[in-house]
Design brief:
By secondary structure, this protein is an alpha/beta fold. Helix content is 46%, strand content 14%. The chain has a 7-stranded parallel beta sheet.
């Protein structure tokens, strides 16, 4: 493929996914690119000679009226072939658009086009590996590219053309070493996508100023400074500032874009007083739902005495990345404060570059896998090589473990060294338990660290995950059997060493018994891990294929050593056998409360917990600490203003349907329907699809997609309804789902727990545009009454105005 090639970027809107099933094109959009410039556009509606499904109309905003006077495909087809001939065909999911178009050509008796074709989805996934998503709307938002009207063929074709040139720029801007490696491996890309990648990477020409992508330019600039260490920067001269106590002084120092008000200022001052004091104490703050908590505790960090390290702990990696970005933004405004901060994860949370380079060498001979290409580009940009920077889709790839770092890897050593110089360390619970004492010792700190938790909801499970242990014996046995098969092919002399080690493994397994006592189980688990580690070392020397990873076994071995030294923390030992799944697990469950009190709180000088909602169980867990250390929970807001209350329409069962009709007449965009159980959810899903499917895209939990996927997809639509079971509330409690602007709770008086209701109300209060429509009992309504602004007295049917957004 040549740089001078002519490209046509094509997008189709259709009545169904395939021509064979009766689908027809209803709009075609084409944008032509030559010499890195958009030179021409073509678009046309197409009369499908069949009805257009309501969901397609809602998605594309193409109505039967739009296509009734449009040409039929057979009328357009000869002109389309003339326009497409000799062009490189480009599409966002090319294996849909090109086969569909060719199937339509074949249907009307014309030959199919044999064109070079490239796919912008795959190319974007490789060249923008940290993008939040790869739908066209995700990428245009991420790269700040124009997309005037999504799901219209003309707009999507033009947006894809801009995306193609952004991909081209990114490939051209890669470091030469990355380019050489990227082009030396066959990535098995769709059609001629790899040819385009090769051409773009070798391209030398410039792009029109209108096509310059800011993110690509910023990446190039960051890459030049990638290896500069924060601590190598010269300190600014001049003394540090004192803490600004008042709202006006904070605004004067930092500007208006932090949305500073008296309530946030009060919380910041509380945090500053705690962290700047030398008292050994724990404070639990319950903040107002609308309060943006993160900056409220980050800003005071710049003005506290740096005599002890502050740890920001969370198992939500996206929060850690967000905290780090905010700290960097604040550091730019407050350079004289010289606050140093760093993230630190477990060694396996980093890429080992040597292991990765070895994997790439093998890929040159055998062909590469897609994630390797993504990592290769990411490696040219990342300052830390921490997997937390990657989207979850790459981060959870099972093969990524094969290139993970260990304690001796350069990437982890660099991260630990940076953390050693830091005043603030951002990390996970597991890393804190494993490395905080070592880091404190390396820093030469005399005082114990302080810890801040913004999302305390996961602390109990995080403690269990951090210090509890599960040995998947069935998996281990399967992998050892595979190693034994490979060892059987070795010469007799080499087999002898394997036979001894395999025998030792077999003996260790025979010691596992359901009647084992605690000490016996610990000894047996130690023997199993020791034998496995020995086998993995032998497998590495023989270059055997195995899914057993040395670093993972060593991490489990370290946990087991800790448990053996602290046996009072073990709550239960289970040996579980599932014959159907061929699984055997040996599990050590720990006493989370004891760990929290004895091995977490006593390791700290101070603990600050901030959240807008605490379940009764979490309150009890957090406040069960040493006497004199734990303060009572401090509520940031007890008297709710009208602006802070949640706009609410209360229903009675008799008028629930009329209230819902009024809600839809108000034209709200994103609605959540929470049903009692799966059967009720199905009822509402089909009812809402039939009644409102022409205006809204309706998603149902486990009907359209699993809960989390359905929630995120629904939140990305222009108009959507998500119908779920109460499982949504648990996921919301874990703070892992988007929240919709309207929540509807049919018949909630029959099934909704009061604490779950409070959780939902608290979450909705974060958005001033939120609305609750619910059928609640008097007891439920009273329980959350101080947080609700009920706009329909006597539960009368609300006027449409009651449901509309505030102007």
């Amino acid at each position: 493929m040549k740089e001078s090639a002519a490209f046509v970027i094509v997008d189709l809107e259709t009545t169904s996914p395939s021509v064979e099933n009766g689908g027809r094109i209803i709009q075609i959009g084409m944008t032509f690119v030559k010499n890195k410039k958009i030179v021409e556009h073509f678009d046309s509606f197409v009369n499908p000679a069949q009805p257009i499904d309501k969901k397609i109309q809602q998605l594309t905003h193409i109505s039967p009226k739009d296509v009734q006077d449009a040409p039929f495909f057979e009328e357009l087809a000869p002109s389309l072939q003339a326009l497409l001939r000799g062009q490189v065909f480009v599409a966002h999911n090319v294996n849909f658009d090109l086969p569909y178009l060719n199937a339509e050509f074949a249907r009307v008796g014309l030959p199919e086009l044999d064109l070079q074709a490239i796919d912008t989805v795959q190319l974007a996934q490789i060249l923008f590996p940290t993008a939040p998503g790869y739908r066209l709307s995700d990428l245009t938002a991420y790269l700040d590219l124009p997309l005037v009207q999504a799901h219209r063929a003309n707009a999507d074709a033009e947006a894809t053309a801009h995306l193609m040139m952004a991909i081209w720029q990114k490939a051209q801007s890669l470091p030469e070493k990355t380019k050489r490696t990227l082009l030396s491996v066959d990535w098995c890309l769709i059609r001629q996508s790899q040819d385009f990648l090769k051409m773009a990477a070798k391209s030398k020409g410039s792009f029109d100023e209108t096509e310059q992508v800011a993110l690509v330019q910023e990446t190039v600039a960051r890459r030049k400074e990638k290896h500069r260490s924060r601590r190598a920067k010269a300190k600014k001269e001049g003394s540090s500032q004192s803490y600004p106590m008042s709202t006006t002084s904070k605004v004067a120092l930092l500007g208006n874009d932090l949305y500073m008000d008296d309530e946030r200022n009060q919380v910041m001052n509380q945090v500053h007083r705690l962290l700047d004091s030398g008292q050994h104490e724990m404070a639990i703050l319950q903040t107002a739902p609308q309060l943006k908590k993160t900056v409220s505790y980050l800003l005071p960090l710049f003005f506290t005495k740096q005599r002890k390290t502050k740890w920001l702990l969370s198992d939500d990696l996206s929060l850690i990345v967000h905290q780090k970005r905010l700290l960097a933004a604040l550091a730019e405004r407050l350079p004289e404060q010289n606050l140093r901060f760093a993230s630190l994860y477990q060694p396996s949370g980093y890429l080992d570059e040597q292991k990765f380079r070895s994997a790439i060498k093998r890929a040159r001979d055998k062909g590469g896998t897609f994630w390797q290409a993504q990592i290769l580009v990411w490696l040219s940009e990342t300052p830390t090589a921490a997997f937390a920077e990657l989207p979850r889709g790459i981060r959870v790839h099972p093969d990524l473990k094969e290139v993970a770092a260990d304690e001796d890897s350069e990437s982890f050593q660099n991260a630990f060294e940076e953390a050693k110089q830091a005043d603030v360390v951002l990390s996970t619970y597991q890393t804190f338990f494993a490395w905080s004492k070592k880091l404190n010792l390396a820093q030469g700190q005399k005082e114990k660290p302080a810890v801040i938790l913004e999302k305390p909801v996961g602390i109990q499970s995080a403690i269990q995950d951090s210090l509890g242990l599960t040995l998947p014996l069935g998996f281990y046995q399967d992998q050892v059997a595979r190693l034994a098969d490979q060892a059987a092919q070795l010469p007799a002399k080499a087999r002898g060493v394997w036979q001894v080690n395999l025998h030792n493994w077999s003996v260790a397994c025979q010691k596992i018994d359901q009647e084992l006592n605690e000490k016996g189980a610990l000894r047996a688990a130690k023997a199993i891990l020791d034998r496995l580690i020995a086998l993995v070392e032998l497998a590495g020397k023989a270059d055997f294929s195995s899914k057993l990873l040395a670093f993972a076994l060593n991490e489990k071995r370290a946990k087991l050593t800790w448990l053996a030294a602290h046996q009072e923390t073990i709550e239960q030992i289970n040996w579980q056998i599932d014959d159907e799944k061929h699984q055997q697990d040996l599990t050590f469950t720990i006493k989370a409360n004891l760990i929290y009190q004895k091995y977490f709180l006593k390791q700290l000088s101070q603990l600050l917990v901030m959240s807008s909602f605490y379940s009764e169980d979490l309150k009890a867990f957090l406040t069960d600490g040493p006497k004199g250390m734990v303060r009572p929970i401090e509520e940031g807001t007890t008297n709710w203003t009208e602006q802070a209350k949640l706009k609410t329409v209360l229903s009675a069962e008799r008028n629930e349907d009329k209230q819902i009709q009024a809600l839809f007449a108000a034209d709200r965009k994103h609605l959540l329907f929470l049903a009692e159980d799966f059967s009720s959810m199905k009822h509402w899903y089909y009812k809402l699809s039939n009644q409102y499917g022409d205006r809204y895209v309706v998603y149902g939990q486990d009907l359209s997609a699993p809960l989390k996927k359905a929630a995120w997809q629904a939140s990305g639509e222009e108009r959507s309804i998500l119908v779920t079971t109460p499982a949504f509330l648990q996921a919301l409690y874990d703070q892992s789902l988007p929240l919709f602007e309207v929540a509807v709770l049919p018949r909630a008086n029959r099934w909704l727990d009061q604490e779950d209701l409070l959780l939902l109300v608290t979450a909705l209060q974060k958005n001033p545009d939120s609305l609750l429509l619910a059928t609640l009992s008097q007891k439920q309504a009273h329980f959350v009454g101080d947080r609700l602004n009920v706009v329909n007295s006597g539960r009368r049917v609300g006027r449409v105005e009651n449901f509309r957004l505030k102007k």
